[in-house]
Amino acid sequence: MRRTLIISPNWIGDAVMAQPLLRLLRDRHPEYPIDVLAPAWVAPVWRAMREVDSVLEAPFRHGALQLRERREYAAMLAGRGYSEAYVLPNTLKFALIPWLAGIPKRVGYKGEMRYGLLNVIHHDNRDKPRPMVSFYAALANPPARDVPPPSALPKPALYVSEERMAEVALHLGLSMKLPLVLFAPGAEFGSAKRWPTSHFAELAKAIRSERSDVQIALMGSAKDKEVCEEIVALVPGVRNLAGVTKLDEAVALIAAANAVVSNDSGLLHIASALNRPIVAIYGPTDPLHAPPFSDVAKSIFLGIECSPCRERECPLDHHRCMKDISAEMVWQPLREMIR
Questions:
Q1: Which residue in 171, 133, 148 sits closest to 17, CA to CA?
Q2: How confident is the model at residue 339, as a pLDDT?
Q3: Positive or negative, the Cα torsion across 314, 207, 227, 232?
Q4: What angle in degrees, to the nearest 10, is found between the helix axes of 247-256 and 266-273?
Q5: Which residues in 52-117 belong to E strands, given as ranges?
Q6: Which of 21, 46, 49 is nearest to 138 (CA)?
Q7: Which DSSP letter does residue 30 get?
């Protein structure tokens, strides 16, 4: 049986944005099972995609070449019958794997010194980069200067069963019978993408003042725990789940949420792919580059003169693009979502 191999990006949000590519590939060749080679920290996202047959967890250290290990792994892949591979990271080391495995068709973007390793090479315009969904979906077709806009492509979609949602909520001490609002105050990219914790706290107080029945929980990795603790200190009773949930549990809990408020982060894009109502907060990044695709979504972006700068830290040291978004600006659309 001919199979397709997808080599995953290292970022959770990018993995979600790549899902429409899988949909296009499956629609074209429904008889080809699709496997994904992914880092362990991204693998739970791929397991929530209906198009994926098997998720193979990459045994490589982040950033390390590990040439001998890649040769050995490629030898294992060679026996699985792949006819094509789509290399989503732009690095040399990931392009090595399908080449070493002898996979006939190897597709990806130019990246770093990958001629020969890839034999179907796409090019992006750095001055006008493609929206992320279009960036990955373009790989399903021959290289082209112009690609379909996100509106012409399938929306990213993840799936979680009702039983799994209930199981995770029970485990975390949350009720499926009461409204649940999740905040995602962190951002792996850098502090520039974080809405101030004081604003999240004000928003929590606004929810509490009008809807005392609403459960509010904070989501994130262990790296976000300190940021979330700042919010809890200002609004006792809000649940801090940062670093408590594994990613697969976080996916299930987001699927059960009535609404999600998030910075531009991987959790935002998970919520989008689960079609949850979202208020997405953008400052240094462009909401058109990686927007939420939920049926009910509001992106808040001030578009001040210095944004989007796409920097990890505010280069002007004022962070106005995020600080000037008030809690009331977020509460207005959120109120309608939880009503």
A1: 133
A2: 85
A3: positive
A4: 50
A5: 52-57, 82-87, 105-109
A6: 21
A7: T
Beta bridge partners of 86: 6, 107
- Same fold flag, 3-151 and 162-338: yes
Q: Where are the alpha helices (DSSP H) in 257-308?
A: 266-273
pLDDT digits (tens, 9 = 90+) for 50-99: 999 999 998 887 766 788 888 999 999 999 999 999 999 998 888 999 99
Domain spanning 3-151: CATH 3.40.1170.10: no
The fold of the 162-338 domain, in CATH, is Rossmann fold (3.40.50)
β 180-184/82-87 pair status: unpaired
Would you kindly state where each structural domain of the chain is located, as residue ranges?
3-151, 162-338
Cα separation, 89 vs 108, whole angstroms: 8
Phi and psi at residue 301, in whole multiples of 5°? -145, 120
Question: What span, in angstroms and rounded, lies between the C-alpha atoms of 321 and 314?
Answer: 9
Name the residue among 195, 261, 206, 265 with its Cα closest to residue 230.
Answer: 195
pTM value surpassing 0.85: yes
DSSP for 17-52 reads HTHHHHHHHHHH-TTS-EEEEE-TTTHHHHHT-TTE
